[in-house]
Amino acid sequence: MRKADLLASLVVFLVALPLCVGVAMASGVPAELGLVTGIVGGLVAGALPGSSLQVSGPAAGLTVLVYEAVRAYGVEALGVLVLAAGLVQLALGVLRLGRWFRAVSVAVVQGMLAGIGLVLIAGQVYAMGDATAPGSGLGKIGGLVSLAGDADPVALAVGGATVAVLLLWPRWRRGARLVPAPLVAVALASLVTGLFDLSVRRVEVRGLLDAVRPPSADDLGRLTEVGVIGTVLAFALIASAESLFSAAAVDRLHRGPRTDYDRELIAQGAGNTVCGMLGALPMTAVIVRSAANVQAGARTKASRVLHGVWLLLFTAVVPGVLGVIPVAALAGLLVHAGCKLVPVRELRPLWRAHRGELVVLTVTAVAIVVGNLFEGVLAGLALAVAKTAWDISHVHVETEDHGAAGIVVRVVGNATFLRLPKLLDALEALPHDRDVRLELGGLRHVDHACAAALEGWAAGRDHERVATSRSTT
Question: How would DSSP label each residue in 88-120?
């Protein structure tokens, strides 16, 4: 094992520790379950082939979906949901479908992350003020107006200070290379609240073994419910997409071996299967931890495996340390993470060059905020498919007037029902007292609706030719 991998594993551990706890709290489950997922992400997914430098664990991108699932089915059903999702991922990887996730519209992915980020920010602002958040995403956003009167000002100050440290610490590059910003922010918040004995809510610790709950036979029986099956598929597909998109991003950060998408999907599936057997949170590859791993100089997968070892040792030896962490600090950490999920810098270029993609992004994000994550992604995918169908169904009608010889009409492109009104308008606008020759050799595709319409138009012209002795082909 290289020294670089050892040092990188320590950096990733320090980044992962507060994030594991924060994601668990935001998901509505005990903090220990986030640590279990981080441990499995290192020891199981980290040891398997796929992406050599990508780090897995509980991710902010799934908090909204997990929170909704826990609220609908209870925390005791979480294990079976994650277990089934892991098995679905394993099947997708074995069937070599991992590479197809790269075909998902980038606008849908960005919209999904933006919607998750907005709901996450709205929900965690309440946690920053030790206040209770409304259940729906729209309710969370609407309730922000009255939050000032309900929030604890001390907790809100702790959360706000945490966000400030997260923004300012990276500007000191030397310090940021030595100690990651999330650890500094949470450690300072814990130190200040402890020294001044501030009356803010802190993380509740029950112990690792007490939090672990393998699925029972009754839990497995719930897999026959339609809603549970839909949640399982949402877990599997969204976790897979997030992991594989993260892998593509990590590959651009280093010059080492490229990701094998099918093997990485199998690794994620194996990790989620184990997480489900332990009743823990679902895992994905996490870009924040993965980037920290690469930037810390990691060379092999040993660094990500070791980060899981450090998490396990921490929770086994000093779990009580978690009890001094203020919830407001973890909420500030997740507000900062949620802001990073919203692709603000991408909006202006999309508006200038690809406004259709911006519409897909916006609709996906709004649908997630108004409804839920699964419905939002489905709406985004449907709109992206419709947009693509519209874009590729361009058809051009070119006319050439050859005088006494008549008019030559050439139809070029893809003739689909989406462009049928335009095509018929152009043909019906042709003069009825001239011979017309219709050339369709330039068409790359003609669907049934257009073929029937063209035959009907030609039949009408033939009838007119017989009646007026004018030739139409």
Answer: HHHHHHHTT-GGGGGGS-HHHHHHHHHHHHHHH
Q: Residue 250 belongs to what H/E stretch?
A: helix 226-251
**Greater pLDDT, 275 or 354:** 275
Contact status, residue 412 vs residue 400, Cβ threshold 8 Å: no
What is the DSSP secondary-structure string of 311-335? Answer: HHHHHHH-GGGGGGSBHHHHHHHHH
Lookup: tokens for 295: 């930037």
* Whether the Cβ atoms of residue 374 and residue 230 lie closer than 8 Å to each other: yes
C-alpha distances in Å from residue 449, one per residue of 135, 349, 384, 445, 455: 46, 37, 22, 12, 10
Structure confidence by residue, pLDDT tens digits, 202-255: 887 777 777 788 888 888 888 888 889 989 998 998 888 888 877 877 887 778
pTM: 0.73
Spatial neighbors of 420 by CB under 8 A, at least 6 apart, are: 449, 450, 453
pLDDT at 450: 85
What pLDDT is attached to residue 40?
95
- The one-character DSSP state at 371 is S
